[in-house]
Amino acid sequence: MFGNAISTLGNPYTLLIGGVVALTMFLSNATGAAADFNHEFLAIKQLNLDKSTEQMNAYKDSIKAVAFETGQNLLDTTKAFYDIQSATGLFGKDVADITTKVGNYALVTGAKLPDAVNQTVKAMKAFGVGVDGIDNLLTANAKTIQLGITTYDELARVQTEFAGAAAGAGQNVDTANKMFSVFTAIAKDSVTAATMTKSAFEGFTQAGTVKGLKGIGIEMYDVNGNMRDMTSILKDVSTQFKGMTSKQIDETISKIGGPEGLRNLLIKLKTDANGLLDTFEKYDKVQFDWSKLSKTPKVISELYQRWQKTG
Which Pfam family is one of this chain's hits (predicted)? Predict the structure, then answer.
C-alpha cells in the first residue's frame, strides 16, 4: 500500500489530478468558510496581543496562502496555526512552515489535518523536535504505515498514547514507531498496539527490568548513564536467548515481570525473534523522498493561475 503511494508521488499525472482535487477543495471550502474565518482568527489574535496590526495582517495572509498551497480547508488551517503556536510558542514563518509540511502530508496520505497537527505537535514536544526535524518526524510516520498494520488516521490518533513514554525512556521517534509497528502485528487493533507500546517503554525503565537483563549480561545504560537504544537492547536480548533453554527464558521473563507490553515483547523475542528484528531492519531501509511533496503546491499554483486567466 505504501509502496504504491510513494510511486505515485513521482507521477506527473497523479500530481496533476491531486492538484485539481486540491484546487477544487480550496475553492469550494474557501467560499463556505470565508464568513467564519475572521471569527476563528480572533483566537490567534488573543495569542499575539503583543504583535502589531501589520504583523497580524501578514499572518492572516499567510494562513490563507498555506490553506491554498496545501488544498486544506481554510478553517482547519486556521485552527492548525492556532494549535501549533499554542503548543510550541512559535510564530510567523515557523508556524507557516510546519503547517505547510503537515498539510501536504495530510493531502498526500489522506490523513485528517486536525489529527495530523495534533499528532505532530505532541510528538514535537515529547521528542524535543524543532522545525528542522519535522520532515524526519513525518517520514518516521510514513515508514510506520508501510510496516505496521495501521492507517495514517489511526496512527495520528494513537501515537500520542506512547510518545511520552518512549521519550521518558530516552528513545526517539524512530524507535518508538518501530516498536509500535511490531505491536500492530500482535494486537487486535491500533489502539491496543499503542497501549502495549506505551507499557513496554514504561516497563523498560523499571528496576526489575534493569536487574533481570543484567542477570543475563545485558546493560541497559551506556557509560554516560543514558538509556541505550531499545532496538539495540532487544538485539542483545535475542542473542542471549539463543543460548538459553526455553525454561531459562521463561524464568528470565518471569523474574523481569513488568506490564503486559514488556512481557509480550520478550515473548515475541522468544517465539519469533527473526520477525521482530526483521521489522527493525526493514524500517531502517525504507526510503522516502519527502522533497517530492513540494511538487504538489506548484501544481496547484499553476492550476489556480490558469483558472484566473480563464475566469
Answer: PhageMin_Tail
